[in-house]
Design brief:
Layout: H1 8-17, E1 18-28, E2 43-54, E3 61-64, E4 69-75, E5 78-80, H2 82-85, E6 90-93, E7 99-111, E8 116-121, E9 128-133, E10 155-160, E11 166-169, E12 173-176, E13 179-182, E14 195-198, E15 201-210, E16 216-225, H3 235-253, E17 262-267, E18 274-275, E19 280-284, H4 295-311, E20 319-320, H5 327-344, H6 350-365, H7 381-386, H8 391-407, H9 409-423, E21 427-428, H10 430-441, H11 445-452, E22 460-467, E23 473-481, E24 501-510, E25 516-526, E26 530-532, E27 544-549, E28 556-557, H12 561-570, H13 577-592, H14 598-608, H15 615-632, H16 638-655, H17 661-673, H18 677-688, H19 700-712, H20 718-727, H21 731-743, H22 747-759, H23 765-775, H24 781-784, H25 787-801, H26 804-813, H27 822-834, H28 840-864
Parallel strand pairs: 1-10, 7-8, 16-17, 17-19, 20-21, 22-28
Antiparallel strand pairs: 1-2, 2-7, 3-6, 4-5, 4-7, 8-9, 9-14, 10-13, 11-14, 12-13, 15-16, 18-19, 22-23, 23-26, 24-25, 24-27
């Protein structure tokens, strides 16, 4: 629909014209249960009253609403013809008064795609569960509104729900006369309002904080999930992290939590990790672990809890004016989540995870043709949807970590405190933050912002070491380079510049015991193409120079030849886990940049990963090694490499401590790379109980992990998968079975999976995701080859007809990356050339996939040299 994709110019014009005093939203969700009626979508009644002012009486504007139909529209007591004023996405408002009241009575549709009011039927017991998800602009699928972040207002919700249900919203709720009524919120943006309804399992707790002035803050805490997940719900740990986080933020931001209660809902078929709705944070229910997982999973959940909590201040209390400054909430939440994780919880190695995982996401995104400055140019809502990316989150957080090193932690936190107090319940731009940081740090933030926030691309830092006649360091310099054109087209903001970096440079050598340890370190401001580190002159000759030791800045680390040789031989002996993680990350970046042969990277992983103590780093190495095998090694070495990796994984699985999380990680990795008859027989034996690895408990989640490779290699057929579903006839089990069914090596299976995803909209978002994951098996390149041409023929239609979330899943997930040949690259270029008028967001997704393919081909070419 033409009005769905709100533009920045339209939003600015409307914000200049209107201000909103409040919303009253009444939803009738009783239609969520019972048999479907009629030919159209299942709908619910939504009645919205908006009170707003117009500073140009007589002017025209519009409200946003995406709904199958509107029953009535009233403006200032005047009934309007819905057929004349509603076009499917907007309600035309003409001849506005200085003070206005709009009432819209609509039939809104329940969602199957996780956008708007999502409806889920639990296959285990037939119960129906509802929740809303709006960011960036899907609240208009549930109630009429002005859908942009800078038209904030208080909200009152009331909800009629089926008997026996509980309903939650942002404010405290109470049920009287069959209606749930919720306390009015503070002034918030439309996209963070929320409703959750259904027979959820609900657990409560409370948090109390007494401040220096003697006042006490009491926050009711709640946590909820589907009844079927209640036996696995470790709410005590969720509440523990929540309380630790609230203490941390109260210690550091000097602004009491402003939104009353703090509920956290773990909901099914969720598209995101979580969403920061004030008073009612929503999470994907996969954060409730049905089987044994490693510490990294618990750390990941804790990080997300704290990320969303940071949003209560960074994003909810103070909100960006438009999506250009999305970083003002997401970058800060990403950084503060890691900061709180290390500062307040048992996960003291959180910065290692940040360096190894989050930055890997940022480095990839910042080398795509779609890279953009952290402060992005967001023309419309489709742009906004795609900019929830590695730049806005992980690069932005990395840059903030650099900012803390640049201005000092005290100045940074004091700037945040002033920012909240000046702009509470308001909207801001970049300059509002920079001004308080200038006050607290005494530094000119303009130059820093231009270099770090308003340009794109990632710099590389390489050491240069000159030794004197006695073998000591005569001169050590850091050479900075911009992203090279061979690996990255010029981004929209122009050629990346050489930035100022605050870095630590570490010198390492082997001890008599054989470990590689740091013996000298210096911090220096790198600025320009070459910076001499004078403090290290005269040091004994290093075996390894680690630029960006302690991970203070955002850059790609490179090595001189001596350092690279040391890593090839001694990486596993590095005793510092953060330094080790940084070296692994640097080697992976070199592999992706076709500077280190992928085969060599795989061999280094096989040699040293068994000695990796940090479980999160180990699991990341597993993912990288598998990606190298699938995409980057020379095609002629894939089979032999896969065999070596599977043998290595099995060897480490058997050697790992019985019952340990390392054993579990190696078991899962072995399943992803198993392909030989012997490997598959072992997996089948572990499932059937005829084989055993001491200490390895094959729980239900691990059973599904073993079944996917068995299905992909034709060992587990439909009957076997049906029998497994009988064992696990749950929502999670259904998703696993769908993925395994689509993984089978059959032309008919692939045709059916393709039709279910591309030609039909019957599957929910979660089942679309599962089907795509099963469809794209690396061992089935020839079987999938015919779908390359079909992909390019279908994607523009899919983008036009399906929701943006499903469109993104299809365009990203079904791109023929496994057909890694120059012919596929040419076909991609031909589509781009023939579809210059396609939606910019669609073209961006195809360009990103093309870049990944071109990168893979460059790496393969290096391997063949």
């Amino acid at each position: 629909m033409p009005g769905e994709n709100l533009t920045r110019d339209e939003a600015r014009e409307r914000a200049a014209l209107l201000s909103v005093d409040g919303y009253e939203v009444s939803l009738d969700l009783r239609s969520a249960v019972g048999e479907e009626t009629g030919d159209g979508p299942r709908t619910f009644r939504s009645v919205t009253t908006i009170r707003f002012r117009c500073n140009e009486p007589g002017a025209s504007s519009f409200a946003d609403l995406i709904a199958p139909g509107v029953t009535s529209v009233s403006l200032n007591g005047r009934d309007l013809d819905p057929g004349q004023v509603f076009d499917g996405s907007r309600v035309l408002l003409e001849d506005l008064a200085a003070e206005n009241e709009l009432v819209v009575d609509a039939r809104c549709a329940y969602s199957r795609t996780g956008e708007g009011m999502h409806r889920f039927v639990d296959p285990e017991d037939g119960e129906v569960y509802l929740y809303t998800q709006y960011e960036p602009a899907d609240s208009r699928r549930v109630f009429a509104n002005f859908e942009q972040p800078d038209l904030k207002a208080p909200f009152r919700f009331e909800v009629r729900a089926p008997e026996g249900w509980t309903v939650w919203s942002n404010g405290v709720g109470e049920r009287t006369d069959g209606v749930w009524r919720f306390a009015e919120t503070k002034a918030i943006s439309t996209y963070i309002t929320c409703v959750v309804a259904g027979p959820y399992h609900y657990v409560t707790d409370s948090y109390s904080r007494t401040f220096p002035d003697g006042t006490t803050l009491e926050i009711p805490l709640g946590a909820l999930c589907r009844k079927g997940l209640a036996p696995y719900f470790d709410s005590d740990d969720v509440f523990l992290v929540t309380k630790q986080g609230l203490d941390f933020f109260h210690d550091h931001v000097d602004y009491p939590y402003p939104f009353g209660k703090y509920d956290q809902a773990f909901v099914p078929e969720y598209n995101l990790g979580a969403m920061e709705n004030p008073g009612l944070v929503t999470f994907r229910e996969e954060y409730i672990f049905r089987g044994k997982v490693t510490k990294a999973s618990y750390e990941g959940r804790a990080n997300v809890i704290l990320h969303e909590m940071a949003h209560m201040w960074f994003g909810d209390l103070v909100t960006m004016e438009w999506w250009d400054d999305l970083w003002l909430k997401e970058s800060f939440a990403d950084f503060m989540g890691a900061f709180a994780l290390v500062g307040a919880t048992r996960f003291q190695d959180g910065w290692i995870t940040f360096a190894n995982r989050r930055k890997a996401w940022a480095y990839r995104a910042d080398q795509l043709p779609s890279t953009h400055p952290i402060t992005a140019d967001i023309r419309d809502l489709q742009d906004a949807k795609l900019n929830f990316d590695g730049i806005t989150y992980a690069k932005g957080a990395s840059v903030l970590k650099q900012l803390v090193a640049y201005v000092g932690q005290d100045a940074f936190l004091e700037g945040a405190r002033r920012y909240f107090k000046r702009h509470a319940y308001g909207n801001t731009r970049l300059g509002d933050l920079l001004s308080v940081l200038e006050e607290t740090s005494g530094r000119d933030m303009g130059g820093w912002a231009r270099s770090w926030l308003q340009t794109a691309g990632v710099n590389s830092l390489t050491p240069q070491v000159l030794l004197d006649a006695e073998g000591r360091v005569d001169e050590l310099a850091v050479v900075q380079e911009a992203a090279g054109p061979a690996h990255q087209p010029a981004p929209p903001a122009g050629t990346p510049e050489l930035r100022p970096h605050r870095v630590a440079v570490g010198l390492y050598r082997r001890t008599p015991e054989g470990s590689l340890e740091r013996y000298a370190r210096a911090e220096v401001d790198v600025d320009g193409a070459r910076t001499v580190v004078g403090e290290l002159a005269g040091a004994e000759a290093p075996e390894l120079v680690l630029v960006n030791d302690d991970d203070l800045t955002y850059c790609k680390i490179r090595f001189d030849e001596t350092s690279l040789a040391a890593l090839r031989e001694h990486l596993g002996t590095m005793t510092d886990p953060l330094a080790r993680a940084l070296c692994w990350s640097a080697l992976w970046n070199m592999t992706r940049d076709a500077l280190l042969p992928a085969r060599e990277f795989v061999e280094i992983v096989l040699r040293f990963s068994g000695r990796e103590s940090d479980i999160g780093v180990l699991q990341m190495l597993h993912a990288w090694a598998n990606s190298a095998l699938v995409h980057y090694v020379a095609p002629g070495w894939r089979e032999a490499g896969g065999r070596l990796v599977a043998e290595g994984a099995l060897r480490e699985l058997r050697a790992a401590e019985a019952g340990s999380e390392h054993q579990l990680a190696w078991a899962r990795f072995f399943a992803t790379v198993a392909s030989s008859p012997e490997d598959l027989r072992l997996l089948r034996g572990l499932l059937e109980g005829t084989e055993k690895v001491d200490g390895l408990e094959v729980d239900q989640e691990l059973r599904w992990a073993f079944l996917e490779p068995l299905a992909a290699h034709g060992v587990a057929d439909e009957a076997v998968l049906a029998a497994e579903l009988v064992r696990d006839d749950t929502a999670s089990g259904r998703r696993h079975q769908v993925r395994c069914l689509a993984a089978r090596p059959s032309e008919a299976v692939k045709a059916q999976a393709w039709a279910q995803v591309v030609e039909s909209d019957a599957l929910s978002n979660a089942l679309v995701e599962a089907t795509i994951a099963g469809f794209t098996q690396a061992s089935q390149r020839e079987l999938l080859a015919p779908y390359a041409e079909r992909y390019f023929a279908a994607i523009e239609r899919v983008w036009a007809e399906r929701s943006i979330q499903i469109g993104m899943d299809v365009v990203r997930g079904l791109f023929p990356s496994l057909q890694d040949s120059p012919g596929t690259l040419e076909a991609t270029d031909a589509w781009l050339a023939a579809h210059e008028g396609a939606a910019p967001a669609l073209r961006r997704l195809v360009l990103e996939a093309r870049d990944d393919l071109a990168r893979a081909l460059r790496a393969q070419a290096l391997a063949n040299d």
